[in-house]
Specification:
elongated
Length: 125
Amino acid sequence: MIDFLSICIAYAGFLTAVIFGIAGVAGLFRFPDPYARLQAGSLCGTTAVFSIFIACIAIAPERSIAARIIIIGIIFLVSAPTASHIVARFTWNSGIMPWRPKGTKRSADMYAQEKAPVKQQNKTD
């Protein structure tokens, strides 16, 4: 009975990973700007990977293997959002503005004003 239950959990995890993986790829092609594409790819990719981790933990033959998968999951939990943040920060610093529909209040001029560097006063004490 437990083997059947763990196999059902594994199949559900793998199926969830496939669904989120396909949704992430669709988001990469569908969304208009790099920020939305990055969000789609990172969220769906993270969900897909964690679904695979859960499925692998469910069918792990030994507890030591399951513990290794959990450690890998924790490392992935830290590294995936960090990598997405680095890519988003580089994109923002490159001057690529987020997509906005025409006629909205926030225009590229407002973004340029927000991004303008603040001049610091030199103190000569």
